[in-house]
Amino acid sequence: xxxxxQNSEALxxxxxxxxxxxxxxxxxxxAYLQWYRQDPGRGPVFLLLIRENEKEKxxxxxxxxxxxxxxxxxxxxxxxxxxxxxxxxxxxxxxxxNMLTFGGGTRLMVKP
Amino acid sequence: EAGVAQSPRYKIIEKRQSVAFWCNPISGHAxxxxxxxxxxxxxxxxxxxxxxxxxxxxxxxxxxxxxxxLKGVDSTLKIQPAKLEDSAVYLCASSRxxxxxxxxxxxxGSRLTVL
Lengths: 112, 115
Known about the structure:
The complex is a heterodimer of chains A (112) and B (115). Chain A has one domain (3-111): Immunoglobulin-like. The mean pLDDT of chain A is 91. Chain A is globular, with a radius of gyration of 13 Å. Chain A is built from no helices and 10 strands. Chain A has strands at residues 3-6, 11-14, 19-26, 32-38, 45-51, 56-59, 62-67, 72-77, 86-93, 106-111. By secondary structure, chain A is mainly beta. Helices cover 0% and strands 54% of the residues of chain A. Chain B is mostly beta strands and 115 residues long. Chain B has no helices and 11 strands. In chain B, strands 2, 4, 5, 6, 9, 10 and 11 form a 7-stranded mixed beta sheet that branches. In chain B, strands 1-3-8-7 form a 4-stranded antiparallel beta sheet, with no helix packed on it. In chain B, a hairpin with a 6-residue loop joins strand 7 and strand 8 (75-79). The mean pLDDT of chain B is 93.
C-alpha cells in the first residue's frame, strides 16, 4: 500500500542554523509534491510545490528537493528563526490529482 | 480575498449524537475537500467535490458520515451517530482547479470532541 513517512519526532535546532526535514514515500509515483506549514489550532498553509522533473525549488529561505530515484523530498529552511517553529507536512500528488494525501508531519522547534 | 470559512470552531457531543459542520470555500473555487485530522497525525481526505459532484469519497465512512455540496458552493459534513474515535479536527479546503495544478486553501477547522 502507499505510504508517506515523515520523521514523527520533533526537530530541535538553534536559531540561524539550517533545518532539514525529510519526506519519504513508497509504492507511489507522484507527479508533484507539495509542502505545507501548520501552526497549532490552524489549518495548513501552502508553501511550495515541486514537479517530478524539477530537482530543486527555492522560495526565499526555503528550498525543496525531489529525488524520484530515492523516493524522497527534502525541505530546507536556511537561517532559521523562532517564527519558523511549526509542523511541516508533505503531500505527494499523483497524475490523476484527485486526492492529496498528507504525511504525518514533522514538528520543528527553533530555539533562540 | 476572503478565506475558507468553517463553523462551528468547536463542538462537544456525546457518543451516538449527531453533528454537522459547514464550509464556505473561497469564491470561484471549483474544488472542495473535507479532511479529518486526528491529534498528532496528518490530514486524511474524507471527500472531494468538483463543483457539486463527488470526485473521491473512498475514505468516507459512509455508514455514519455524509457530505453534500448543493449548488456547487458551500458544503455540509454530517456525522450520525458519532463515535469516540471521531474526535478530531475537521478541515475544509478549496482549490481553483483540481489539486495537481495548485495549492489547497484551508479553513481554520472544526474541532470535535466526542464524550
